[in-house]
Amino acid sequence: MPRRPARTAQKTRRPQRSAPRGNPADWPLYEAEVLRGLEEVARTELGTIRGLDVVAAGDEAVRFRYGGDPDRLGRLRSVVAVYAVRVWDVPRPRGLLGHQQLGELTAWLRGVVAAGGHRSLRVSAAGRDSEVMERLTAEMAGALGLPHQPEDGELRLRLRPAAGGTGWEVLARLTPKPLSARDWRVCNREGGLNASIAYGALALAGLRASDRIFNPMCGSGTLLVERALMGPYEAMVGVDIDAGAVACARSNLKAAGRDVEVAQVDALSTGLPPRSFDLILADLPWGDDIGTHGGNAELYPAFLNEMHRLCSRGGRMVVITHELRLFERVLADSPWQGRELAQVYSGGHHPKMYLLTRG
Ligand SMILES: C[S@@+](CC[C@H](N)C(=O)[O-])C[C@H]1O[C@@H](n2cnc3c(N)ncnc32)[C@H](O)[C@@H]1O
């Protein structure tokens, strides 16, 4: 499944800036690109940042003003990417080729590149093959000294009519790679969960320092690492039936600097006593790249029963799956109480996250 391939994001250190100052209406404008379904999670995470004012939230985007150090935005975990936004009072993109506008545009972009360390450029815009767009792209590439790589250029620029007004706006991605490509991911596997989705599921399920956490079917360890980075817990262990997955999860945890036990064990026969865990995190096989639909028809009911045995009274289980009809049917016949947390749209898949509670 096209859960995003892992790439190691580049980090560029900038000197710390002092606390936000001045009138919030004058703070620089940014836009966070968000997976559909995670907008509320993103708003909540953005709301924890001092000196950040959300000005608009829509599908797959949250727009905000921020007066603090932009480095902080590169550490957001729920969003795909953050873009700096500038608006020019021009009626058409051709206006950006004017002497003054082009000077302002390239000076602004030089600042973005100096902070982010981008090594190439690409432009996303309606009509990007038009003569004007091609000229604009060539001017920016020349002025910034960056090669134009139309498919995967690191400085991703988006050009569009200004939101709710006249003029055109340019959005420049702050980081060379998407933020969902975490620094800790040194190993990926087929079916690796998008880290922003993992973060969203964990945030929606709620963090408790007293939780004894179990991550059966941990794969490359995305849920383990993201949970370990989010705050304290009582205990956490991951298992996978596949030796390669166990090694992969261990490498990622090591890269994240987190000490979590991972073992090669069948989640359906761990030999652990009843009620060993308070929170179970399960990204089940979706039946396409990992597992099969036929196999899942047997796996899902057995899994729900065994996890019910391992979960404490009042405990919770987060389930992420794309096998929606099967899962909802099996859930209805299980001893769990369940509710949907969110449905996320990512790379052609639209998995749901559920929160199950054990009475
Ligand atoms: C969808 S993948 C998990 C992906 C993981 N969340 C990640 O980010 O890499 C499902 C995993 O379940 C594992 N698995 C399947 N059946 C299992 C079982 N009975 N016990 C333990 N692991 C199992 C597979 O080996 C696979 O790694």
From TrEMBL:
Care to name a GO molecular-function term for this sequence?
tRNA (guanine) methyltransferase activity
The alphabetized UniProt keywords are: Methyltransferase, Transferase
Q: Which residues lie within the region annotated Disordered? A: 1-25
Domain annotation Ribosomal RNA large subunit methyltransferase K/L-like methyltransferase: ranges: 182-351
Protein name listed in UniProt: RNA methylase
Q: Where is the composition biased (Basic residues)?
A: 1-16
List, in alphabetical order, the GO biological process terms annotated in this UniProt record: tRNA methylation
- Source organism superkingdom: Bacteria
Pfam families to which the protein is assigned, alphabetical: UPF0020 (PF01170)
